[in-house]
């Protein structure tokens, strides 16, 4: 990439002297764009085209795959995995909502009450990410273990009876249940919610709160009419950064779930790594998931961009 | 209580601060303030930064809780009331306009929160008052500083508060715009007839607009009165130095004759009106404003009965068109500044020996035991 930049092609043979600087001027932006474009082609366009291509192939790992434009892969990719799509969507939406509910107060507190501890508190939010994602998720197995304090407390308070009857926990256990999956996801994705929220809240001038209070707003109304609208960029950013990876996540479902909490990601992994002829359908699921997420996100941004949501 | 509405508005009344005190740790920002601001007046709290004027304002608005003392609006004690329950609105120093709302909604904000009907008509007439009706749908960031200032004023005024608080409202504007807004603010105040409490460190701004000025220093009010009173007859060296410039000459009271007090300073006899001389005996600081001092070359030209100081040498003369500003060094080492209006008289060059003189009725006498330099350079500090 650097070579492209440092050694621009010799100026093309010119038609006339005065033309040359103009030609240069029009070329320079493209030359400057080139490294970025190459990066996008190599790491975005090629993989995408590969998956889309693979999704309409037939064959198996042993015999080799052929591009047969077999669109029937999509039919089975959608109809055979409906419950998994449902789980992925449900868990990731729940995770996003819970992250927002937990993250907003934290970000608000750090931004407005953190004072000189701001930086330290934000560092504490990020510090857990220094441990591997996998290890942190496995740690939740211990936290939610049957003989652990969380489960026994919930059991003693008879909360588990209610949640089990609703299907969120299983019997007397928290582990290996939808609730455990969502817990793990919320824990893992919370920093991605807090960071953009904090950034947008921190930018709000505290004097605007005083102005709100001066203009007949109770603390709640000040938040509703001044702080929340001004922090919407953070809310949108945070929910997207949480939702998009959460939809594709399968580690939490794998480690903290049970056979009935299967998510799309698990199926993709399974098709790619454990089945000899899984590539085409696996790719088709990936494409469906990607397009579906893209559509949802676009609708969401549309809505969030309008004043009535604010 | 019966005439109150949602914002706790009651029928008129003066703003009264009784023993108002605010401490931040061991630092006393506002020290036992006693103050009554009559309804409908334009009142200025003038002082350098850190003198407690903004803290006082914030306690009135409710954004800061006093450590001691009470705040009354009319007969009502509002000390414990939350800011959003006080019939008081503030024009903030940096305007604090809501960036996510357009101009119309910024101005309508207070009305909407109080559930007032007919918002549109009121906002439109308020925008007309500040002459910005055509910008109703712009966002605050699209406005110039002066326009934002007027919107901040409109946003507060539309609620018809019993008291409108202005916290250095013109501080961010350039000089020309500031002048213009000073006149504008005064016009609006006369038009709406509300009590304006204006906090500023700019003495000229305070003098232009306010009916009454309270000069604050270290959490206390040094002196309060009309701009003329404060300027012509300052009560302390702080006021004399902070509000305009003063020549202050230390001396000793020698005696009284009729309505005059005689003072000896640097071996020369000076007089001051007894009514304008605070101490009656002992050390005194004699003051006179530079524009009241005249400069002559020959002592014979000094009018009969005038205070005179002889043996001065001009050390600096700056011609600034409308006047010439001289610095005259006295034999005692003291420097007297003289503003001479440009009436076509010959300008004295540095090095010339001169006599300075002034009408004794224009001087004032201050308690001689205070710091003669008090307030002399705080203005520049706070302006910086």
Can you tell me about this structure?
- The complex is a heterodimer of chains A (310) and B (384).
- With 310 residues, chain A is mainly alpha-helical.
- Chain A has one domain (82-309): MetI-like fold, CATH 1.10.3720.
- Chain A has 14 helices and two strands; from the N terminus they run ααββαααααααααααα.
- Chain A has helices at residues 2-6, 19-55, 72-79, 82-113, 118-126, 133-143, 149-156, 159-166, 178-202, 206-214, 219-248, 251-256, 264-274, 279-305, and strands spanning 57-60, 64-67.
- In chain A, strands 1-2 form a two-stranded antiparallel sheet.
- Chain B has a six-stranded mixed β-sheet, with helices on both faces.
- Chain B has nine helices and 20 strands.
- The longest helix of chain B has 18 residues, at 175-192.
- In chain B, a hairpin with a 2-residue loop joins β4 and β5.
- Chain B has two domains: 15-232, P-loop containing nucleotide triphosphate hydrolases (Rossmann fold), CATH 3.40.50.300; 243-383, OB fold (Dihydrolipoamide Acetyltransferase, E2P) (Beta Barrel).
- Chain B has helices at 53-61, 103-113, 119-129, 145-157, 175-192, 203-209, 227-232, 237-242, 378-383; strands at 15-24, 27-37, 42-46, 68-73, 76-77, 88-91, 163-167, 195-200, 212-217, 220-225, 247-257, 260-265, 268-273, 283-288, 294-296, 307-319, 323-329, 335-341, 353-358, 364-367.
- Mean pLDDT of chain B is 89; it is low at 1-10 and 379-384.
- Chain B is α+β, with helices and mostly antiparallel strands and 384 residues long.
- Chains A and B meet through α10 and α11 of A and β6 and α2 of B.
Provide the CATH top-level class of the largest domain in chain B.
Alpha Beta
CATH-level-2 architecture of chain A: Orthogonal Bundle
Quaternary status of these chains? heterodimer
Q: What's the helical proportion of residues of chain B?
A: 10-25%
Q: How many β-strand runs of chain A?
A: 2
Instruction: Give the strand order of the largest sheet of chain B, numbering strands 1, 2, ... along the chain.
Output: 6-7-8-3-9-10
The helicity of chain A comes to: over 70%
Largest sheet of chain A: 2 strands, antiparallel
Task: State the fourth-level CATH superfamily of the largest domain in chain B.
Answer: P-loop containing nucleotide triphosphate hydrolases
Q: What fraction strand of chain B?
A: 25-35%
Distance between the termini of chain B: 46 Å
CATH topology of chain A: MetI-like fold
Query: Unreliable stretches of chain B, pLDDT < 50, 5 or more residues?
Result: 1-10, 379-384
Q: Which CATH architecture of the largest domain in chain B would you pick?
A: 3-Layer(aba) Sandwich
Largest interface: chains, residues each:
A-B, 18 and 25 residues
CATH superfamily of chain A: MetI-like
Integer tally of domains of chain B: 2
Radius of gyration of chain A: 25 Å
């Amino acid at each position: 990439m650097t070579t492209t930049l440092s050694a621009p092609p010799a100026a093309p043979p010119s038609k006339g002297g005065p033309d040359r600087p103009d030609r240069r001027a029009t070329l320079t932006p493209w030359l400057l764009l080139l490294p970025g474009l190459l990066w996008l082609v190599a790491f975005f366009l090629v993989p995408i085209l590969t998956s889309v291509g693979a999704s309409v192939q037939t064959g198996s790992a042993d015999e080799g795959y052929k591009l047969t434009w077999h669109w029937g892969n999509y039919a089975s990719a959608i109809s055979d995995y409906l419950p998994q799509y449902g789980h992925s969507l449900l868990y990731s939406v729940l995770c996003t909502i819970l992250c927002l509910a937990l993250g907003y107060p934290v970000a608000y507190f750090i931004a407005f009450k953190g004072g000189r501890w701001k930086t330290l508190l934000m560092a504490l939010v990020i510090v857990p990410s220094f441990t591997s994602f996998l290890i942190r998720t496995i740690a939740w197995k211990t936290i939610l273990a049957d003989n652990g304090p969380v489960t026994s407390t919930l059991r003693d308070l008879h909360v588990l009876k209610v949640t089990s009857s609703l299907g969120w926990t299983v019997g007397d256990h928290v582990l290996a249940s939808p609730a455990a999956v969502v817990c793990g996801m919320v824990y893992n994705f919370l920093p991605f919610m807090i960071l953009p929220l904090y950034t947008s809240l921190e930018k709000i001038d505290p004097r605007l709160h005083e102005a709100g209070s001066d203009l007949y707003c109770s603390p709640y109304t000040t938040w509703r009419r001044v702080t929340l609208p001004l922090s919407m960029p953070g809310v949108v950013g945070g929910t997207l950064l949480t939702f998009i990876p959460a939809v594709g996540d399968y580690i939490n479902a794998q480690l903290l779930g049970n056979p009935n909490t299967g998510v799309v990601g698990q199926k993709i992994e399974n098709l790619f790594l454990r089945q000899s002829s899984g590539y085409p359908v696996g790719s088709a699921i990936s494409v469906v998931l990607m397009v579906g997420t893209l559509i949802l996100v676009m609708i969401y941004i549309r809505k969030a961009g309008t004043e009535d949501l604010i | 209580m019966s005439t109150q509405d949602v914002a706790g508005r009651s029928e008129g009344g003066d703003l009264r601060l009784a023993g108002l005190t605010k401490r931040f740790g061991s630092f006393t920002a506002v020290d036992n303030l006693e103050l009554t601001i009559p309804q409908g007046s334009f009142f200025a709290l003038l002082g350098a930064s850190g003198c407690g004027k903004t803290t006082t304002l914030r306690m009135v608005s409710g954004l800061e809780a006093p450590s001691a003392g009470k705040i009354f609006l009319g007969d009502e004690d509002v000390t414990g009331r939350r800011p959003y329950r006080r019939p008081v609105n503030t024009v903030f120093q940096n305007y604090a306009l809501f960036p996510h709302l357009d101009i119309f909604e910024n101005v309508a904000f207070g009305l909407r929160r109080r559930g007032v009907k007919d918002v549109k008509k009121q906002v439109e007439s308020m925008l007309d008052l500040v002459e910005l009706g055509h910008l109703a749908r712009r966002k605050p960031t699209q406005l110039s500083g002066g326009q934002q200032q007027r919107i901040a004023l409109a946003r507060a005024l539309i609620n018809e508060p019993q008291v409108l608080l202005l916290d250095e409202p013109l501080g961010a504007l350039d000089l020309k715009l500031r002048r213009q807004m000073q006149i504008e603010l005064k016009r609006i105040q006369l038009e709406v007839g509300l009590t304006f409490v204006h906090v500023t460190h700019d003495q000229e701004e305070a003098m232009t607009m306010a009916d009454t000025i309270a000069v604050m220093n270290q959490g206390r009010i040094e002196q309060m009165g009309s701009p003329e009173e404060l300027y012509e007859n300052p009560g302390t060296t702080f006021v004399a130095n902070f509000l305009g410039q003063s020549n202050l000459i230390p001396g000793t009271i020698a005696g009284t004759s009729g309505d005059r007090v005689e003072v000896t300073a640097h071996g020369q006899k000076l007089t001051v009106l007894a009514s304008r001389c605070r101490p009656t005996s002992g050390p005194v600081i004699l003051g006179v404003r530079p524009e009241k001092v005249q400069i002559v070359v020959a002592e014979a030209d000094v009018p009969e009965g005038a205070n005179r100081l002889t043996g001065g040498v001009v050390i600096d003369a700056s011609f600034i068109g409308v006047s010439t500003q001289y610095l005259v060094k006295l034999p005692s080492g003291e420097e007297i500044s003289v503003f001479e209006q440009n009436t076509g008289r010959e300008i004295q060059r540095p090095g010339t020996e001169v006599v300075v003189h002034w009408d004794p009725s224009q001087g004032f006498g201050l308690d001689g035991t205070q710091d003669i330099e008090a307030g002399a350079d705080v203005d520049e500090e706070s302006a910086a």
